[in-house]
Amino acid sequence: MVDSTHPDLLRVEGLTVAYGRNDVVFDAAFGLRRGESLAIIGESGSGKSTIARSILRLLPEGAKARGSVQFQGAETLSLPERRFRPLRGREIGFVPQDPGNALNPVRKIGNQAHAAAALVEPRDSRLRRALILDTFERVGLRDPQRAYDSYPHQLSGGMLQRVLIGLAVIPAPKLIVADEPTSALDVTIQKRILDLLSELQTDRGIGLLLVTHDLAIAAERTDRIVVLKDGRVQDAGATAAVFTEPSSDYTVRLRDDAPALNPDRYSAVRGIRRPDLTARPRIEVSDLTKTFHVDGRAHTAVDRVSFSVAAGTTHALVGESGSGKTTALRLLLGLEEADEGTIRIDGESIAGRSLSEVRDIRRHLQLVYQNPFTSLDPSWRVGAIVREPLDRYGVGARRDRAALVASTLAAVGLSPAHAKRRPSELSGGQRQRVAIARALVLEPEVIVFDEPTSALDVSVQSEIVQILLHLQAERGLTYLFVSHDLALVRQVADSVSVLHAGVVVESGPAERVLNDPHHDYTRGLLAAVPRPETRVETRVVAHGEALAATSVETRVETSVDTQVHAPVDAEPLARTI
Amino acid sequence: MTGAALTMRRPVSATRAIAASVPLTTLVSLAFVAIVLAWAVAPGVFTSFDPAVGVPEDKFLAPSAEHLFGTDQLGRDQFARVLFGTQSSVLSALVAVAIGVVVGGVIGLIAGYFGSWPDVALARLVDVLLAIPSFLLAVVIVSSLGFQTINAAIATGVSAVAVFARVMRSEVIKTRRAVFVEASTLQGGSRAHILFRHILPNASRSILTLAVLQFGLSILVIAGLAFLGYGDPPPASDWGLLISSGKDYPRAPWLLVFPAAITIATVLAINRISRWLRKTS
Question: For the complex shown, is ipTM > 0.85?
Fold first, then answer.
């Protein structure tokens, strides 16, 4: 049956998957050759995970897959579970999406690794243990013994994802199916995990099926691409071909919407703005410090952070989780009290103000949260949500407020009919529009965005960004934009502060910081942005977790970035950021 | 596989299916509770007999078309007595639930929203209430207030305060930390506004489910108190009292069986509705 010399590792034909009576995948077809990598790209609800699960035969109860899935020339879809089970794990490995949920929290990792090792010879537990530790070391866990003896909560997300890759690799499978393996991780960790998967693919000849929503990652990492929308294959073929000459409108749109591929996407609308750069900065933050005390230990979340934002421009605070960027903006909004430092809005200091004065300042300083699924009260209707700030601040006459709500909803691209709905009846993008409308309705001068699009699909993200930039151009708004996504920052920001462990390591105009970074950390962040065109050259095999911890790695990345300094080469590379 | 696909749907679509169509058992339960509530409001509409007036020669008649539930030792129509007993049995349970929801809800709201010392103080009070078995507490309260059904209702309500306070407190704490509450602060919402417009509506969802559940439980507790003689004295016809006097006549089992069956059916129906509410909310 399973023919280990068959040229096609995986062949999917006419795959149709239905949940109950609803078909979610229609007639999908693609193939993956031995040692190749294939990306399945799509947005949420496109059916990409369903396809991955059909291949692994891990579909939820009640789902029904028809068509043909051949693994090494043998049909697997129609196999009885008893005969498929030897393939799952041994021949086809699986790396799940969220490393935090994929391991049993009450069992040690070593214990769980033995379950994976039990799939293969040898039967001796000492040898198995050696195999596990060896594998852990190969997937870049610096201290395999510590990982072996740890419980999942004792390791970071990046380490857990390495453990999961290790567990998938232990039985030496021919194919690894990775379902968004990096979407829960920081960008630099993402790069390391992707490097590891690419390395396994090239060095050990393991076929890689990468499920992702990120076209740039797919283009950088894989040989072949399948683009999926609403369960239908839009485009399929060699990466370079799909990438340069997409045959479907959807792929074109996806490519245009990916920030990493279109740094100058919004330069037209940004060019309309005429910020007065000579005037006093709208936001001035200097020497802001905040220390939290957790379990008796002091943790300085924000350490002498300073930045200023000119009126009518966009400033980006960039950093990974734990860098202090969210704390910085909470201090700015008065949600936390700073230990030291001053915050001035339009030249007026916020510190030491009474509650009602802070309330007045907040009127001109609004926040849009990261996750529109939690930031809107589920029991309120959209109209009431947008109207709430007007009522609270007593803006305008009572009878004018409904009209103001309607016009604000229109400004973010929602119809009056949406006002009668509850948040649960809206999509993620629509909810975020409501959140933006709520911030906008008071006509504030400054809007702070805490990763406003990270919970949204890339095409929705581009719609939201478009709206934000249009509003900025129309109303002269000042934006403070918190993000970990340098590609997006590159598209929208005028100036940037890079935060690392609570300290501003680099700041300046966006052009300068992103084209000519001075600090290693900034370079690391930039190197983590996927670059399809430099795919062959820039694949740096990285080990370990901490950035710039190994001098070798830093040097390699520096040498890549030195191209940027040369005026001739700077443009093509810079454009891909 | 096809059979499995039909019977076992994904959890998501299952919830949707329930939201779209109420299951049959819940519909039956809703209908039954509606009838019981109608009995409580207007018992006279459903029977022509007077529950207090007996016809001595008709005593101990077995259930028939005329006397649906038979007659008792004084020749009173048992069906009429159950109907007229509904009012005090069911409405006093409503009073009990109202006391539990209002007092417990306020305690939970204050404890959950303000935290620090009010929380500690109220938590001790709730601990004390929880430490005493609720039926015992009810007996003690009725003994000191007097043997009346309304006092039994108050006692039942007081013994339910702790449960409501606990649930309310945890819901308020959960909602208070929600992002949309912080968002409301940024939009200029005062504490009272946030408390009453954001926290209370969101926290009250699970209180509603609990209140319905507690309604059924209160009917049982009040019937139990009436059975032991802690409710209105005869000739009142509380369900518990009917069961209590019915047990004295083993040769006329209908006197015991019908009030007991109605009590059990009401409580089960209410439980079913509560479970349905919990699943859909």
Answer: no
